[in-house]
Amino acid sequence: MENIALIESFSEFKDDKLIDRVTLMAILEEVFRNALKKRFGSDENFDIIINPDKGDLEIWRNRIVVADGEVEDENEEITLTEAQKIEPDFEIGEDVSEEVKLIDLGRRSILALRQNLIAKIHEHDNTNIYKQFKDLIGEIYTAEVHHIRHRAVILLDDEGNEIILPKDKQIPSDFFRKGENVRGIIENVDLKGNKPSIIMSRTAPEFLEKLFEQEIPEVFDGLINVKKVVRVPGEKAKVAVDSYDDRIDPVGACVGMKGSRIHGIVRELGNENIDVINYTDNTQLFITRALSPARITSLKIDDERKHVEVFLKPEEVSKAIGKGGFNIRLAGQLTGYEIDVFREGVEEDVELTEFADEIDAWVIEEFSKAGLDTAKSVLEQDVDDLVKRTDLEEETINEVRRILKEEFEQ
């Protein structure tokens, strides 16, 4: 009776965890054999018969009958006297099969059996979850906000699997509420101990690429190919697209009438400014398109060094650089070329590094991060704009401008 009650309680796991019958039987037998090894020193002479569907369990120990007083291994041998208590007809040298009741293993062993079974079931469950999400790396996934921590948001999917969205994988403008559904891509899956660690990302370029695939039918159908995606999460992105059908305008199809198709993607990414660009193998044309909305006058390309000098009219320079230097930085990442901007028609300019004796190096570095490497590039900008584009105080900027102006007044 104890056997049946115990196996019935174990069989509940089959329904809860959706484990197939063969796997459950294998796990059950492994757990029982481990218990027999601890109790008797070996499990090799035991037969275990399990039927989890009916709740049947039988354990039989097989021993050889030996003369009284000649038992060397109590687990594998039984005296004639003890054997004849089981069946009077037994003789020396015969095999005896005796049923072992679970209660004979002791209460503590039965508790350990249940704990080991739970651990094995969880281990099997976690292995399956790991394999499932390993196959989903790079794919969009949706889960619900369960807990908000300082360094991460903990999500749960419909199956109760825990997914981690770290702070550095969130778009800066992201704000989540408990119970809210969140989309991202599965970026990484690891096994920490026996528990899978599933990491989601909303900042990866692949997330934007998958959003295009999900939201734009021509991309999903393979008529439009997303060649490359670069982005500053929450700020700006550039997406190069190409079409296998000359009748399809890939940019127009992705953007939609009055931006109708791309609007949902922009909203999902916290109003990230997305430039969709026609891909081309023509390097000069591709760089020109990548620096949009600036209009380029001419280019000087060094393919060996992957470097390009871009010449523009002075009023186009700020457009090429863009807010925070994002436009020129992303254009470089998209094309694979280091881009230097030069003002066409400007008679003379001076690199900021030439003023190192008067301006601190870290201040020059701040201007450089914003794409401003020359004296005139700084002087042409509005002070308020410089404050926004750099981490410099207005007082510092005004002092730098004073030093630069003196250079041109001499």
Notes on the structure:
With 410 residues, the protein is an alpha+beta fold. It folds into 4 domains: 2-130, N Utilization Substance Protein A, Chain:P, domain 4, CATH 3.30.1480; 136-201, Beta Barrel (OB fold (Dihydrolipoamide Acetyltransferase, E2P)), CATH 2.40.50.140; 206-343, GMP Synthetase, Chain A, domain 3 (2-Layer Sandwich), CATH 3.30.300; 352-409. The protein has helices spanning 2-17, 21-40, 80-86, 107-134, 205-215, 217-220, 250-255, 260-268, 283-290, 314-321, 326-335, 361-369, 375-379, 383-389, 394-409; strands at residues 46-51, 56-66, 77-79, 95-99, 140-148, 152-156, 162-166, 181-192, 195-201, 224-232, 236-243, 273-278, 296-302, 307-312, 338-343. It has a 5-stranded antiparallel beta sheet. Strands 1, 2, 3 and 4 form a 4-stranded mixed beta sheet that branches. Strand 1 (46-51) and strand 2 form a beta hairpin. It is elongated and about 120 Å long. Residues 1-5 have low confidence and may be disordered. Residues 6-125 form the Transcription factor NusA N-terminal domain.
